[in-house]
Amino acid sequence: MSSHHSRRTPLPIPDVTIEDAFWAPHRETVRTKSLPHQEHQLRTGGQFEALKLEWKPGVAGEPHIFWESDVAKWIEAASYVLAREEDPDLDAAVDEAIALLSGAQQDDGYLNVYFTVVKPGQRFTDLRDAHELYCAGHLIEAGVAHHEATGKTTLLDIVRRYADLIDREFGPGGSCEGGYDGHEEIELALVKLYRATGERRYLDLALRLVDNRGTQPYYFDAECERRGTEGYFGTFLQDRVRRVDWFRQYNQTHLPVREQTETVGHAVRAMYLYTAMADLAAETGDATLTAACERLWDDMVGTKLYVTGGLGALHEIEGFGPAYHLPDRDGYAETCAAIGLVMWAQRMTLLTGEAKYADVLERALYNGVLSGISADGTRYFYGNPLASDGSVERSEWFGCACCPPNLARLLASLEHYIYATDPTGLVVNLYIAGSARLEHGGQTIRLAQATDYPWDGRVRLTLEADHDTDLTLKLRLPDWSDGPTLTIDGTEVDTTIEDGYLHLARTWAPGTVIDLDLGMSPKRVRANQKVAAVLGKVALQNGPIIYCAEGIDNAGAVPALTIRPDAELRIEHDSSSNLDTVTVEGVCERQSGDALYSTDAPKAEPTSIRAVPYFSWANRGKSTMAVWLRETAAGH
Amino acid sequence: MSSHHSRRTPLPIPDVTIEDAFWAPHRETVRTKSLPHQEHQLRTGGQFEALKLEWKPGVAGEPHIFWESDVAKWIEAASYVLAREEDPDLDAAVDEAIALLSGAQQDDGYLNVYFTVVKPGQRFTDLRDAHELYCAGHLIEAGVAHHEATGKTTLLDIVRRYADLIDREFGPGGSCEGGYDGHEEIELALVKLYRATGERRYLDLALRLVDNRGTQPYYFDAECERRGTEGYFGTFLQDRVRRVDWFRQYNQTHLPVREQTETVGHAVRAMYLYTAMADLAAETGDATLTAACERLWDDMVGTKLYVTGGLGALHEIEGFGPAYHLPDRDGYAETCAAIGLVMWAQRMTLLTGEAKYADVLERALYNGVLSGISADGTRYFYGNPLASDGSVERSEWFGCACCPPNLARLLASLEHYIYATDPTGLVVNLYIAGSARLEHGGQTIRLAQATDYPWDGRVRLTLEADHDTDLTLKLRLPDWSDGPTLTIDGTEVDTTIEDGYLHLARTWAPGTVIDLDLGMSPKRVRANQKVAAVLGKVALQNGPIIYCAEGIDNAGAVPALTIRPDAELRIEHDSSSNLDTVTVEGVCERQSGDALYSTDAPKAEPTSIRAVPYFSWANRGKSTMAVWLRETAAGH
């Protein structure tokens, strides 16, 4: 179902193939390693078990308020796998989980273990802290994905009944009229449910939740008064953020959403809200929502985005700091926030037709998202710092396990992000070898994409059709491009660039071959001088890949390295890891003693500095690491 | 009264004069501006008024738990002024404050407004949070100082009665047997009271409080259980430090003091505790206390001391971070912590006879302490960051106003820190023009000191006596010295250096002139490579003075500056401020746009970088500032 007010529509999973040497192996790892590993964690960690509603007060293993969301994201990820290939074991495991969810659903449609067995009778009384609608949102997303993947309605029916209950509770005269969630998520899920079912009231509910947010009188105060106690987290979060007004920013309730101009607070919450706002703009054509999204985007991209596409400078709120506060070693950059950014950026690029959003999508995907998962698919980063003293490693699992299944569902649904259609033809947002299929001009058209991206900026597109077709191809020109060259059947052609896309509008003969060279070369990236944390330092980038130096490749001395200002950045392929590396000449400084302060200058020895893709770090044991490397100032 | 087990004894205030061009004006400002300004704050802020015990529940102006300490430190500072000069107005104001304190004292000796009118009946039940003994300690220090300065016993009698009550409550069978304070201070005060009165039980009480600290069963847990509620700060501080064991480190109760090896927690608390430990070692000869102090000192100086002598990297606990975590812009470095360091360092240098402690004393005094007060004496820094984005200014006062009167009492008692005696003669720890008087070998000896220190490392000492004297002079050789030269009556002499002092043992004729050139030149200082925050940067130092660049002198662009590696550091005197400055050639980088990230190299223009003494920053309006300046790595 296409959105009425969106410029573009993504191709569905079955119409896209990914057959490249970069993502296809990662996705196979997700299918064969991550999903079984996560299923094991959910079975042994209590998440599956809790759905039996057998927990009793005083017994160990009290169900946690987040747990449905872990199960739901795992089902959603598994569904995307099932959408493209048969996997009877996975299908059966998903059916088992759905049966458990069915058993946990109450007669009136309610489905939340914590408020059924731990705090019965208190449902929807702690919207600010208790993640009830957040869990509901993930269940809804899972139900939609499962239905689209398998055609089954088992989970979709469950979540529709639950959504119907929520609609009543949050509708006129309901117990939560005027309310909204403390952790955004359900809004974007309800838009998906609307698209899957055509039921307008799900869209209206999403819109109501977004419209209510941040209005006066302040719902969370009223809720707290009615309850007579602090919420689930007590004053923990308020104490962390120190002031009540900051705490309202924490969950983006400080202002009505259309009046919000700065990206603030908890980064995942923010991304999910903004994604929903873009979705709602796409469905309703509400230009005030689009404008709010554009303002928030500009603030984020202009002042608060890590070069890796990570978001959230502050550990204590898992969220945004002030403008330009982007500490590398002490930063946060939660994996889920980068995933949320991919989602928001996709909605924005579809909504507006502008490539700049897909540029950021790509930055996050290849760096701050992919760094969240180990090469073997079974260890995860919750935070993704841009420098490490060697103490940081990925973990098998987390008490709050939002990131692992979130990674799985994004990587398993990567098809959604590559191509889009508009009335004139096909848009290529990401360069990933494989193919796209679309119906256009009365025939089925297939666009085959061959490339060694992200290591090589050359892309060959072959148009396959039964007969000639009038079609506009829009090929994203990445923000890192040195300038493209393009040939059609071997003849160089001039192209126009609009909104960041190369436009190729013509009548295509079947078999036409388009060779696009995006112009990729390794480069130094510098942050704005207001970013005090990395002043005088450079990051190395080639194509979409941000590099980092790890101690294991550099005699353990990453902080001691300085790049020579004029030294060439040499790309070398490392056959053991199958990754490209960057090597550059520099110096390594060695201090003469252990004193805290000294007037002795350190000894500087020439050295070759080797950097590996940031996403690949911490796969070879503990090691120091830095994305930002010192470089001599020009002019010396 | 000299301490039995201390190597040295400081000269009393009346035997020392300060007649230099650096400190004398600062001290005159304290007398004529700071003390009246602080008195005004105490009169209008409620601190004086509260002592009338007229506050009633429900009325505004509830007395605060810290307030006696503000009054006490102001009295102490005023007393030091009165010790050296007559000031009838000040004397009368002090007498008025003492009369108020006398009126607030209860029949049994108790003296604390908060627990008399706000929480009557709850005295000594919240030792962890409520600062009761901390306030008592400051009252005792004030009583001793006032008695020594004026000969009056009005306040001394008051604090003795209070100390006697505390001794009973914390003694065998008392209500607080086994207890100790949550904010250390009274321990060092009781040692002063012992020295002033000769009453051994005050020393024993101090020792008991120190010995009890951190033992099992844990007193603060037992106290909390008895009380049945959280302490004054609730869970605020625990939440900030996140874990219970860290919270025990916060007030240095994680281990018995002799087992503590790392400087941890709230920095002022730590300094006051360690000062008391050194005092007790000096009185009792307990080598285990000396050894603990030495271990803690080495940890602090080796891993946690700012180059300015500031202490405490973490805002959230006003205290120490992990080793080598010394952020410049986001650091804390509370003025009171640097003052506490001066106190501890003095005790250590007296106790051990080693100059290295006085080196750190000097570093703190000329930088991290003096930065706490404005040139006009009426504005104060609570924290003293080593870099600023231009948003930081000194304040007239604080809700928690510990720093202003603490600065006043230290600067007003600077005489204590310059000279010390030992059985062989006189020790010079600080170079400050003026004089010292001592009885030695049956006659009064006066050592006149002439110098333009800290701007000039040349010092002339003239020995004045009635006849020849055998005496050893020990002159501290600062850690920044390039190597000293010394002449006696114009003849260069070789000297031996022991424990960091030049030793001159001889028979001196009256009028002998010693010319000492300490060897002062401006230099670059680098931090250990483990200090990630300032890697690749240098600080500029000349003599004891640490310099900083302010935006106002550098076209507003401090973060954009880079020093040329081989450029000369030129000392220039600024006649408008009467301060020395350092000028060095470097470059100023200008980025081409406002983007958060760019591949464009910044334009680098040659520039002269001007740095001013760190202590003098923020006296000319808001400005960016940095102590640590980027420098090109050697070898480029």
TrEMBL record, chains A, B:
<feature type="domain" description="Non-reducing end beta-L-arabinofuranosidase-like GH127 catalytic">
    <location>
        <begin position="15"/>
        <end position="415"/>
    </location>
</feature>
<dbReference type="InterPro" id="IPR008928">
    <property type="entry name" value="6-hairpin_glycosidase_sf"/>
</dbReference>
<feature type="domain" description="Non-reducing end beta-L-arabinofuranosidase-like GH127 middle">
    <location>
        <begin position="426"/>
        <end position="520"/>
    </location>
</feature>
<protein>
    <submittedName>
        <fullName>Glycoside hydrolase family 127 protein</fullName>
    </submittedName>
</protein>
<feature type="domain" description="Non-reducing end beta-L-arabinofuranosidase-like GH127 C-terminal">
    <location>
        <begin position="522"/>
        <end position="630"/>
    </location>
</feature>
<dbReference type="Pfam" id="PF07944">
    <property type="entry name" value="Beta-AFase-like_GH127_cat"/>
</dbReference>
<dbReference type="InterPro" id="IPR049049">
    <property type="entry name" value="Beta-AFase-like_GH127_C"/>
</dbReference>
<dbReference type="InterPro" id="IPR012878">
    <property type="entry name" value="Beta-AFase-like_GH127_cat"/>
</dbReference>
<dbReference type="InterPro" id="IPR012341">
    <property type="entry name" value="6hp_glycosidase-like_sf"/>
</dbReference>
<keyword id="KW-0378">Hydrolase</keyword>
<dbReference type="Pfam" id="PF20737">
    <property type="entry name" value="Glyco_hydro127C"/>
</dbReference>
<dbReference type="InterPro" id="IPR049174">
    <property type="entry name" value="Beta-AFase-like"/>
</dbReference>
<dbReference type="Pfam" id="PF20736">
    <property type="entry name" value="Glyco_hydro127M"/>
</dbReference>
<dbReference type="InterPro" id="IPR049046">
    <property type="entry name" value="Beta-AFase-like_GH127_middle"/>
</dbReference>
<dbReference type="GO" id="GO:0016787">
    <property type="term" value="F:hydrolase activity"/>
</dbReference>
